[in-house]
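Running co-folding for flavin-adenine dinucleotide.
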Amino acid sequence: MDKRAAPVRHGQVKAASSPESSPEGTSETPRVPSVPSVRVLIVGGGYVGLYTALRLQKKLKPELKRGEVEIVVVTPEPYMTYQPFLPEAAAGNISPRHVVVPLRRVLDRCKVVIGEVRKIDHGKHTATLTTLATEEEGTGPVELSYDELVLAPGSISRTLPIPGLADHAIGFKTVEEAIGLRNHVLEQLDIASSTRDPAVRDAALTFVFVGGGYAGVEALAELEDMARYATRYYHNLRAEDMKWMLVEASDRILPEVGESMGRYTIRELRGRNIDVRLRTRLDSCEGRVAVLSDGGRFPARTLVWTAGVKPHPVLAATDLPLDERGRLKCTPKLTIDGTTRAWAAGDAAAIPDLTADEDGEDGKGGEDSKGGRGGKECAPNAQHAVRQAKTLGDNIVASLHGKPLKDYAHSYAGSVASLGLHKGVAHVYGRKLKGYPAWFMHRVYHLSRVPTFNRKARVLAEWTLSGLFKREIVSLGSLEHPRAEFELAAGGARPKDPKGSN
Ligand SMILES: Cc1cc2nc3c(=O)[nH]c(=O)nc-3n(C[C@H](O)[C@H](O)[C@H](O)COP(=O)(O)OP(=O)(O)OC[C@H]3O[C@@H](n4cnc5c(N)ncnc54)[C@H](O)[C@@H]3O)c2cc1C
């Protein structure tokens, strides 16, 4: 290790409010008192966080063993979510716990702290965070010092000030949202089947998705496919009674698979009676009535908002440089512009796309103006996040060893998307596939990508079993309220709308 690796702050953890408190797993008993240590703080346990930590714990094994290096991962959940599997989880093809990767098990040489970073003062090399314990104890946030910072909090849904949106819509970024939505859709079929009020039935059977990127299109296509199948078990519902709608502000959908495959997807969805409305915006959803810019008005009990993402707001609570879209300004070496010992990647980072000029044209399996090869920065997707994390990990190791850093450069390989069971669309390395071959490719690709052999085996087993047996169509929405039955038994009132407003 070079001199930079001999840090000044040997992992001080001091409470912002009280000197005693320290976050879980960062207690300050001197590890190897005579040996100085480097603390690498990784903010976020998603794609970038997980893969960077994996890389570091592999490449810094001897240093970790000798106590010269400590890797701390701070993340709100103890798992990484494999987001491309969320639509399949919503459709019931994969169990929710197989869509996530347990961080403590795979990052066995790192310290995983379940908490949220609230502020970063890179000038002082400190992060302010809250943990489950600080919330429980009411002690206020704690400060954690670091030597190297990896900032990867990802993105959140990009919403607009549309009346009713915050009250009635749901996003599609987390496993909780995916499973909540599955339960909700199945519950709407139960409502529609049991009501005598035609207005309630219509609203229950109307499902509006806003945003035609892969999250929106895949979620809609998978859920529609699942609900269509489920209707065969209802004596008074037919698939044709449902109204599924995709609202997209631009003139195309699924830009990730290129223009012609996007057009194919529209035809495929319309062939299934899904109402795809391009150049249309959602103007309001007050009172659970979706009002569209083309004049359409649809009472709907389901409104899914997948109209893009924006960088995580915690970035604004740092002294690090942001671009006009609120992402961290980064160099191709994945350092944060104008700083030392601060690194970033993934959805939260604006990283120059060094391959953009090579073959930036859309329609060759590439991305579009949303930031893909046609743009000047890498698109916010898993393909880049995983590869960036690898380079980032290598560059931190190189920096600690006083070696030169490498540039990140990866040409977008294209995308695969599932449109329901046995249906899909793909545009990878210039090859266009549709229907069953694309769906099969989607499964093979993601099976090869989902982290850990354990998860691969479990997902494969589930797919195999679901090929042999009938699909699961049960709604387990009551799982979200495990105390409801007991509260009723104990004399409380049954909640009016236990599932909330959506
Ligand atoms: C439904 C869906 C389908 C997708 N399908 C594809 C696909 O098929 N192909 C593809 O390439 N991409 C796909 N993506 C995009 C891809 O998942 C993201 O680009 C990728 O997850 C970005 O990685 P990341 O590490 O930057 O962020 P994330 O993976 O989102 O990780 C961010 C992490 O930071 C944590 N965090 C947030 N705030 C804090 C804080 N204050 N303190 C500590 N931790 C914090 C979060 O909880 C999370 O664990 C899909 C996304 C969605 C939503």
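Result summary
The chain is about 30% helix and 20% strand.
The mean pLDDT is 87.
Job closed.
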